[in-house]
Amino acid sequence: MAAWEINFDGLVGPTHNYAGLSFGNLASAEHRNQSSHPRQAALQGLKKMRVMKKLGLQQAVLPPMPRPGLSFLRGMGVGGRTAIELVENAWKDSPELVANAFSAANMWTANAATVSPSADSIDRRTHISPANLASTLHRGQEAEFTTEILRQVFHGDRFLVHDPLFKNVALTDEGAANHTRLTASHDQAGLELFVYGTDPCDPQSNQPTHFPARQTKLASQAIARRHRLDPSKTFFWQQSPQAIDAGVFHNDVISVGNENVFLCHELAFVDQPSCLSRLKDVFQQTFGNDLILVELCEQDLPLADAVASYLFNSQLVTRPDGKMTLICPSDCEKVASAKRAIQRILAEPNPIDQAIFMDLRQSMNNGGGPACLRLRVVVQDYELEQIHSA
Ligand code: SUG
To answer: Which one from 250, 264, 275, 328 is the annotated catalytic residue?
Structure first.
């Protein structure tokens, strides 16, 4: 039995722009109202996909969504018979609505859905939960179309594409950006780690004070339940409020995992030492091998540098020769501490022996690095025929 990880990247659409819509995402705020270059953005994304193919990996692409979001504008009460009328009327009344309707944020497919491969679920189906993205106005309009696309791509009965969780402040869900799967190898059942920013059932708990937490514990738990995961192999960790306040709006800005390697910052999670120690124990008991943990400390890579370089938003992938490559944003070469950290990771005894730096400036300006641009789906060879061939 063979299994592959397929990366489904988003393709940047022609309305790619910098409207500063994501409070708590430092890059989005910093580049607000600057000029964007959609063609360059698309070419940068395609180049990354080509690099992945060259490494011998499985690469797929999801289409951009129809934009501007006319049904969004109509839903906001804007009148007009044609697209142009709708946009003109919205612009006169509330330019913010136009910014939201033009958002091309669906390029970040790490937020499209959470995926649990069939090996992990009790009913042996691949479960896919499209994210409701209800924490931001511009992204909330993605869920419906994402669900439609995913149902067309994963059309067979071996896949179950759920409805998004209903949109409610207690159930905000941002998809795979807050989910990591660890396993001895892709074809085996994995441990699934869900990371949430806030727990609506415990409003007194430690919360960020500057920026919003986007993922709730209730949402993560509901997804794990729907995906029929084994509770003894499922973890729910709270993201550290300090990290969120430093600009870590999604967990994939502060940690990344692939097979038996987990790379994270020491200030990523609440109660981190005990969380990691339990994870290591369960990994060892499940697979009979050690989890390789690469934990970078504040002294070596300050949180601010982690956010500026997006080191943890690198893609960590297993090549056909069994070794691993980090696909890093080229910003990592410019931030000295991040560059040193990567050199150290490459020199240490772990499977990561290659780093490739990619210029993704157009996406990075909105807070989207290499890992944001892809949705990982692990499929067994016999499941491939149920994925849309185009
Ligand atoms: O949701 N930026 C996206 C970036 C998503 C990054 N994805 C992951 N970390 N997986 C967001 O904040 C900016 C849009 C604007 O400002 O115009 C934006 O939506």
So the answer is: 250
pLDDT per residue over 144-155, tens digit each?
999 999 999 999
pLDDT value at residue 390: 85
**What average pLDDT does range 269-289 have in this prediction?**
98
Gap between the Cα atoms of 250 and 223, Å rounded: 17
Burial class of residue 204 (count of CB atoms within 10 Å of its CB; 0-12, 13-18, 19+): exposed
pLDDT tens sequence across 216-232: 999 999 999 999 999 99
Strand partners, 315: 327
Rounded-to-integer distance, Cα 30 and Cα 243, Å: 18
**Gap between the Cα atoms of 314 and 57, Å rounded:** 16
Q: Has this prediction a pTM greater than 0.85?
A: yes
| Given the residues 174, 192, 259, 266, the one annotated as active site | 174
Tell me the Ramachandran region of residue 56: left when phi exceeds 0, alpha when psi lies from -120 to 50, beta otherwise: left
Q: Is the CB of 177 under 6 A from ligand 1?
A: yes
SS3 sequence, 114-128? Answer: EEECHHHECCCCEEE
Q: How far is CA 316 from the centre of its chain?
A: 13
Asked whether 139 lines ligand 1 (CB < 6 A), one says yes
β-pair type (159-161, 126-130): parallel
Q: Which pLDDT value is given to residue 1?
A: 62
| Helix, strand or coil, per DSSP, at residue 164 | coil
The overall average pLDDT reported for the chain is 97
Sort 389 into a burial class: Cβ within 10 Å, 0-12 / 13-18 / 19+.
exposed
